Each structure stands twice: as structure tokens, then as C-alpha cells.
Amino acid sequence: SQTWNKTPLITSLILLLMMSLGGLPPLSGFIPKWMIIQELTKNEMIMMPTLLAMTALLNLY
């Protein structure tokens, strides 16, 4: 696309921001989601972490 050719730095930063909002592992959005999923599974609340993980996958799309 034309955006990458004109402003590759801004395009890269937008991509990084979107991946962080999606909660991919090396980025800051992943740690809070992971901690919530761990605590819910420790309390044997299986349905909530499953729904959280599925909605996180939908957010990436």
C-alpha cells in the first residue's frame, strides 16, 4: 500500500500499537490479561478465562 512507502515509521508504530492493544505476548497488553486468566483458573472459574481468551483472539482479528 501507499502508506508503507510514504511513512514506514508511522506505519510500524501503528502496527506495534495495535498488537499491544491485542495483547500479544512480548507487549504490555499481554501481562494483565495473563494475570487475570491465571487468577481465574486458580479459583476454578473455567468459563471466564475461556471467554476472555476467545475474545482476545477475536480482538486480534
From TrEMBL:
GO terms (BP aspect) = mitochondrial electron transport, NADH to ubiquinone
MF annotations from Gene Ontology: NADH dehydrogenase (ubiquinone) activity
Q: Is Cell wall biogenesis/degradation included in the keywords of this UniProt record?
A: no
Q: Name the keywords, alphabetized.
A: Electron transport, Membrane, Mitochondrion, Mitochondrion inner membrane, NAD, Respiratory chain, Translocase, Transmembrane, Transmembrane helix, Transport, Ubiquinone
Primary localization class, coarse:
mitochondrion
Pfam families for this protein? Proton_antipo_M
Q: Which GO terms describe its cellular component?
A: mitochondrial inner membrane
**Primary role:** Core subunit of the mitochondrial membrane respiratory chain NADH dehydrogenase (Complex I) which catalyzes electron transfer from NADH through the respiratory chain, using ubiquinone as an electron acceptor. Essential for the catalytic activity and assembly of complex I.
Q: Which family does it belong to?
A: Belongs to the complex I subunit 2 family.
Q: What is this protein called?
A: NADH-ubiquinone oxidoreductase chain 2
* Organism of origin: Panthera tigris (Tiger)
